[in-house]
Amino acid sequence: MATASVGDVQPQRMRFEAPLPLRSGARIRDYELVYETYGQLNADKSNAVLVCHALNASHHVAGTYAGQEKSEGWWDNLVGPGKPLDTDHFFVIGINNLGSCFGSTGPMHTNPDTGRIYGADFPVVTVHDWVDAQARVLDALGITQLAAVLGGSLGGMQALDWSLRYPDRMRHCIAIATAPSLSAQNIAFNEVARRAIVTDPDFHGGFFYEHGAIPKRGLRVARMIGHITYLSDDVMEQKFGRELRAAELGYSTQDIEFQIESYLRHQGDKFSEYFDANTYLLITRALDYFDPAREHGGDLSRTFASSRCKYLLASFTTDWRFSPARSREIVKALVDNRRDVSYAEIDAPHGHDAFLLEDPRYHGVLRAYFERIAKEFR
Fold it and tell me: Site (Important for acyl-CoA specificity): which residue positions (predicted)?
């Protein structure tokens, strides 16, 4: 099957004056959400698929921006004409979450209540809050029921939460490389990354915008820590091993000696140029807080008793951050409730990042599932 890009795309904005109640008890008003759409909405609006983004991604799921090099959407290999999520059949929506630094209202925007930049005063947001905000966008678009909600990693958590908070507004939930909650180890990684940021002298308690500063050192370290967890040991060994940067050891405790060090520093440098420090704190905390079973005494089976849609879950064997065992927990809870669930555990060497890559087995699973969904409205 021939595949193509959706081509050049344009972000759109939607403003909401009505306050959005947040899980914390706070509210946010007069906020904007940025989104993109691909494909055409059919006459009865039954072919819409919402794609939820992960930590450092955005609404820009597919396509390119005119005049910008290397501007492909973060899931461009998956979404487009003839691709597994085929825009010849589906109307795909990507929404940038509240608190992000890619256009939707976040810490770097003005607080309408004070007239000052939010900074550290931006309210803490959760996965539940993002799902409620996304539902408002769909309301404005006149979409009452989604064909599917799709997401990987933190996006997968949002997809799962959609199936619990709005069980009648979706027919399929597709959750990739995700978990029903973070393990203690994952929370620990997030906390170390946050401490790297908040202890950076340029952080200024989260009000660094007023000082004309950017806590780049903290962001670099945070990204390096995160990036290590996204890759498998096998991939790191294959790519870098113990290869030196120079011909001989330099016998230095501070200079770069190994190629893996050079790679991590490069990733950290890039990240510090485009990502917002307060946004990083907000999003990692939203990851920490996600635990829908908490309201059901920790019983995941009881948690999914209210779900109504069909499910596809997929995991990757070398993903040690969100291991297959965590996906199997969700599958068991769904089976306990006699829900229609499909599960694919894919033997891939890439670690957590596998959900972003073009593995033929992984894409084959998604293509087959979306073809099944498409038959519902053809």
Answer: 321
Give residue 278's identity as a one-letter amino acid code.
Answer: N
Q: Which two tokens stand for residue 208?
A: 């660094």
- pLDDT tens-place string over residues 61-88: 999 999 999 999 999 999 999 999 999 9
Q: Where are the alpha helices (DSSP H) in 84-212?
A: 127-141, 154-165, 184-198
CA distance 147 to 144: 10
Name the CA radius of gyration of the chain, rounded. Answer: 21
Q: Is a pLDDT exceeding 80 seen at residue 2?
A: no
Has residue 217 got a pLDDT over 60?
yes
Query: Hunting for tokens 């709005």 — which residue is that?
Result: 166
Catalytic residues: 153, 319, 352
Q: How far apart are CA 117 and CA 368, in angstroms?
A: 47
Q: Which two tokens stand for residue 25?
A: 């008890």
Q: Which of 5, 229, 257, 49 is closest to 155 using CA atoms? A: 49
pLDDT at 256: 87
Half-sphere exposure of 169 (CA within 13 A, CB side): 21
> For residue 378, is pLDDT > 80?
no
Distance CA 228, CA 235 (A): 11
Q: Give the strand order in the sheet containing 91-95.
A: 12-16, 31-38, 91-95, 48-52, 148-152, 172-176, 310-316, 341-346
Side-chain-side CA neighbours of 320 within 13 Å: the count stands at: 12
Q: Which residues contact 140 (CB under 8 A, 6 or more apart)?
A: 14
pTM over 0.70? The answer is: yes
- Does the annotation place 353 within a ligand binding site? yes
Interatomic CA distance for residues 96 and 218, integer angstroms: 24
Distance CA 175, CA 357 (A): 15
Q: CA-CA distance, 120 to 281, in Å (whole number)? A: 10
- Residue 65 corresponds to which amino acid? Y
Q: How far apart are CA 42 and CA 254, in angstroms?
A: 59
